[in-house]
Predict the structure.
Amino acid sequence: MIDPFGRTIKYLRVSVTDRCDFRCEYCMSENMTFLPKSEVLSLEELDRLCTAFINKGVDKLRITGGEPLVRRDIMSLLRNLSRHLKTGALQELTLTTNGSQLTRFADELVDIGVKRINVSLDTLDADQFARITRWGRLDQVLDGIEAAKKAGLQVKINTVAMRGVNDNEANDLVEWCAEHGHDLTFIETMPLGEIDGDRAEVYLPLSILRAQLSQHYTLVDSDYATGGPARYVTVKETGQRIGFITPLTHNFCESCNRVRITCTGMLYMCLGQDDSADLRKALRADEDNTTLNAAIDEAIGRKPEGHDFVINRRQNAPAVSRHMSVTGG
Ligand code: SAM
Ligand code: SF4
């Protein structure tokens, strides 16, 4: 799949549920209305959809949400999809999780063929964790991360950087990740979906965080790249890699290799744009995927060049109305 700007699309992120056992402040409002189950694709439909993309050249698949590990029978979907790892069509099957269910699932994930996972962790302070996630418990997540490591999974920690919330913990997070052998990526808050608070209040440009880290560590620019929005440095003192995801800048659109699907089968060609394609309708139109394949090709043909994110005090409405839990980040 090659889009109008010559970019080859090889990476698919699929949100398998919009539901979650946490209510992170920057992601959701406290009282979320979730989709009726009838609108959500079945596990069989998700498999068909992912497989159609793999047949079109996708070789990296990330399962996300909402919280993917709270979807019932999610392991059966992952196990079925792992057949594409065995044939070599898929290079990587991975997921992004809040870590709450990892003690239960870590061993099975390894057995299925998952090698690396991303776990979101914004703070190492139990009270702060409870405040940010509203419903989460830090010890449960730390146990989950420990279980993942023991099972042999490589864990990358994703931390949303927030001014006045966790910016004072950046060094602690770096130390903790170095100690446990995890890579670490900081993410800027993105204006996606209505939340209860004001995002401009906590928005922290990562240039500031990076400058702050530089006072304690020697950060060496790295040419490591994944085709995604992260820029990487190596910390000279610890040898670990730290990523910075700055989605509000445009520095990554030109190498964008990814598209996203929601749990209702909407395909979003860009995280920062509203344009989409209804693949559920196409999926249900026939069984031999003729309509689906045509719909995918047509949608890739309108992948936009870049996004329109803005976060500032004048424009307070979200740039994109759907929540991150819909497209999964
Ligand atoms: N529940 C899983 C988790 O938390 O890792 C997967 C889905 S979550 C939507 C994916 C990532 O998006 C998490 O790392 C989360 O911190 C991040 N995220 C959610 N809302 C965001 C926002 N408005 N701006 C930046 N990152 C956000
Ligand atoms: Fe749930 Fe992840 Fe959103 Fe937090 S960031 S509310 S864990 S989907």
In short: Residues 175 and 238 are 8 Å apart (CA to CA). The radius of gyration is 19 Å. The mean pLDDT is 91.
